[in-house]
Amino acid sequence: MTGRDLRALFSTNDRGLTTAEAFTNRQQQWAAVASALGGHLAGPAVDVEDLEAPRTHVLCFHGIGGIGKTTLSRKIEAALASAEQRPAQWGAPAWPGNTKLVPIRIDLSRAAGADFERVLLTVRLALAGAVGRPLPAFDLALRRYWDHNHPGEPLEEYLRRTGLTGRFAQALPEHLQAAVGDVVSALELPGMVGATVSQITGSLVRALRERRQTVRALAGCSRLADLLEAEPDVEALSYYPHLLAWELAQLPAKHRVVPVLLLDAFEEIGDRTHRDMERLLQRVVWLMPEAFFIITGRSRLQWADPALQGQLDYTGPAAWPGLADVSHSALDPAAAGGPRRGRQILIGDFSPEDCDDYLVRRLSRDGQALIATELREVITARSHGLPLYLDLAAMRFLEIRRSGRTPDPDDFAHDFPALIARTVADLTPEERHVLRAVSLLDAFDIPLAARAAGLTHDAPALRLTERPLVEENPFGLWPYHLHALIRSTIRAADDRTDDRWSAQDWRRAAERALAALGEQWRTHTAPGRLLLAGCLRQGLALARDFQLDLGWLAEAAWAYVGDSVWEPLAPPARDDAPDAEVRTAAQALVELLSTLARRQHEHRQRTADRLTAVLQTRLLPDDLTDMATYYLAKAHRDLGQADASRRGMQHVADGDGRLAPAARRGLAHLARIAGDFPTAHDAACTLGWKGRHHRVMGDLWWPHGAIDQALASYTAARAEAEEHGVAGERATSQAHLALVAAFADPTRADEEIALAQQLLDGLDLRATTLTTQIATLIRDAGTPNVDDRARTLRTEVEVAGVVALQTTLELALCFHHAVLGDTEQLATGLERMRQVTTGGDYAYYSDIAHFMAGLPLPNGSQARWLDGEDVTRDRWHHLVTTRREQLRAQR
Fold first, then answer.
1. DSSP letters along 278-295, please?
2. Which residue in 692, 783, 691, 770 sits closest to 738, CA to CA?
3. 873-887 burial string, b = 16+ CB within 10 Å, else e?
4. Are residues 160 and 207 in the same domain?
């Protein structure tokens, strides 16, 4: 369904252009209306005199500004009024066909100028047409109120002046006068023809209290006399809907009508402090239980909150059971079906398909979309599903066409300040202040929001979280986050609101937010690693975007590196500077930590290049420079660049900083890689826990075929890592333990590999994961399909660019072919081994491959074996012959 879009029509001279207010989807919201209204109509008869029963006749749609609530309200009104006006995508409702619905939509926005009098008159005017006769109890009270509060102003003149004219504008004054005339006639009051209600009120009240036969039609309304005796002010007027409900209940069944009141822009009737208008409207809802109310606004109704007792007349979950439930997204229409199910439904963003459909139909010529497909895709992506953005983008499209050129995608790399004005329109100054502060954060909680805003109290932050522009994930570390488009717009758009922030305001808020994150990291009780990564990710973005000092981020970076877990950490680049040059320490730290995490997914040469670039900036403090230098040295070692690695490790070791023990371990590894086992052994004995001495010893023993010693060393390394709570080191030690066990005992290897996989769950350790996969090949040596699996694994290993993994994989295949006694495949494996060790690193792996197969060494590696070459040869050959015997026994 579409209507004329006059704003777009008057934005162009192109008379061939079709401009329409496109309405898209919302089937789920309609399904919720159909289900809830159908349940209301099919339920038991309502006793309007029962003022204590819970009320279940309200459905609330809420959502951020620009999400399409008003459009939805209008379309629901039209669909209820006529099946022909129901959008094609909406299904037919299931309520009884003989039910006469009277949809009454009331715009409560400031632009509509609604006040309580106008609300009630709008309802009565609509019923004048639907019922076609006076409703005496209500009409008498309304006439008394009117005569008292508008002396000398005829009702028909007021209706004309305020725009409440229409088909039944004349009928209502006639109904009111007829009600007075009927009472005068019934009471036989001579000389009172044409009298006002105030002149006959005393007589009528006495007759009602005496329950005279002449007024029996009104005497059944037990509260009419009380209302007629009350001072006829707005307070009394708000109770008159009870009389309206009573009159509707008296109608014969065949003339029964059910008002469906659609109250739109409900957020504009007041705020969370001044609820005068809300209190009056809530009375209307409570006192008309046979009607059905569909309320649309930016916020959820709080009526089920017991804390509002005293501010509103009817509060608490017992009074409003449907409003007390958790909000539903209306993805499940049945969620709004039962009287005690959730009746507060969040209106969600458009899907990409709906966004495209909206843009296709919004501007067209000769039945073809005016906005090209590529351009629609860009607008859809930037909109995050917000209809208001789509509408603003369509108007920008026309604006650019007026300049004489064809819009292109770059024209929509644009934020609309109008979004901000629409978003903050109904927020208090303090809430707007908090909104801007939390736009700096990916996610937040109440204390973090208050600290970032510089507040000493939480109330504005609490109120903001109740707004639909704040989304909630109760399972997140920080439960709240802003709608993505609102956040990006507030951060980036040229804000022209009265309370806009200066550049210094933004910087001060960023400093406060960064300090608050640091405080949470140091004091919070949440799981340490999760909190660490979250604080770092948000803190790095703040420090980078606003050029802040590192502060606590440096210490947090060391904590991040210390566990060797390597979760993704780099915050996304700002839209306005996606490839910004590294010019600050914060930017350098972002690049450093991002590189360390990404090295689990990139070739080591890429890691080395990025770390080299970080070091060349000379922006990091000395200790973090050591961190970059150490991991660059590790990357050089993995690439087989031993000399460069040795220089870096020696530099860090000589500095005697935090990574000095790790650098000394690196030097021991380099000695082992070169085949200088005695030097590596002596160094390992001095490393201690910080230098991971047990794992280094295990790395020394297993190339010698000393399986028992290696297993004992890795077991001790794993236990020590558990004791210190270092998950990455524990998983690495276990993976190496599984690798060694696989050579000697396939049964035990099953258990060790399973444990390694378990310890790796949730960690991002690519090399360790590949080590575990190589262990499975060694465990299965001598069985079918090993070669096929190895070919797939070889591709992953080569992509990683780690020489140690390449040599270990080729050694595993040599072990497999030696067990099989396949001399041809073994010769191929030995050739591959020579190719990957041409640089001199791990050259002794070729020696081990010859030892396994019992082959002589044509050109030895010059390795300095701890126990001598013969002992090492015998151990490896024994492992091969043992495996053959095990396989033979299984056949």
1. HHHHHHHHHH-TTSEEEE
2. 770
3. bebbbebbeebeeee
4. yes
Given the structure tokens 């569909």, which residue do they identify?
294
- Number of domains into which the chain is organized: 5
**Residue 706 forms part of a structural domain:** no
Residue 515 lies in a domain: yes
Across the range 745-757, mean pLDDT stands at: 95
Residue 434 and residue 539 in one domain? yes
pLDDT tens, residue by residue, 71-101:
899 999 999 988 888 887 788 887 776 778 9
267 within 8 A of 61, measured Cβ to Cβ: no
Are the CB atoms for 640 and 801 separated by under 8 Å? Answer: no
Do the Cβ atoms of 414 and 407 come closer than 8 Å?
no
556-569: average pLDDT: 85
pLDDT value of position 341: 45
Give the helix ranges, DSSP H, for 364-439: 373-383, 387-402, 417-424, 429-438
User: How many C-beta neighbours within 10 Å does residue 505 have?
Assistant: 15
Tokens of 541: 């973005």
248 and 265 share a domain? no
Q: Residue 743: what residue type?
A: F
How far, in Å, CA of 625 to CA of 616, rounded? 10
Q: pLDDT for 306-362, tens place per residue?
A: 888 888 999 999 999 989 854 433 334 444 444 334 688 888 777 788 788 888 888
Residue 489 exposure: Cα atoms within 13 Å on the Cβ side? 26
Q: Are residues 463 and 590 in the same domain?
A: yes
Residue type, 720: E
Nearest to 299 by CA among 275, 332, 318: 275
Residue 313 sits in a domain of what CATH number? 3.40.50
In single-letter form, the type of residue at position 732 comes to: T
Tokens matching residue 711 = 């297993």
- Does residue 592 contact residue 622 with C-beta atoms inside 8 Å? no
Alpha-carbon gap, residue 288 to 57, rounded angstroms: 9
pLDDT recorded at residue 360: 86
| Alpha carbon distance 123, 289 (integer Å) | 15
Q: What are the angstrom distances between the C-alpha of 763 and each of 138, 548, 730, 732, 847?
A: 71, 30, 11, 11, 34
Range of the domain at 217: 133-252
- The 10s digit of each residue's pLDDT in 357-405 is 888 888 888 878 889 899 999 898 888 888 778 888 888 888 888 878 8
Q: Tokens 């000769």 label which residue?
A: 366
Is the residue at 691 inside a domain?
no
Q: Is the pTM higher than 0.85? A: no
**One domain for residues 341 and 357:** no
165/82 same-domain check: no
Quote the Cα angle for 658-662-665, to 5°.
150
Output the average pLDDT for the chain: 85
Residue with tokens 């290696």, as numbered in its chain: 710
Identify the domain boundary among 226, 252, 278: 252
Beta bridge partners of 293: 58, 261
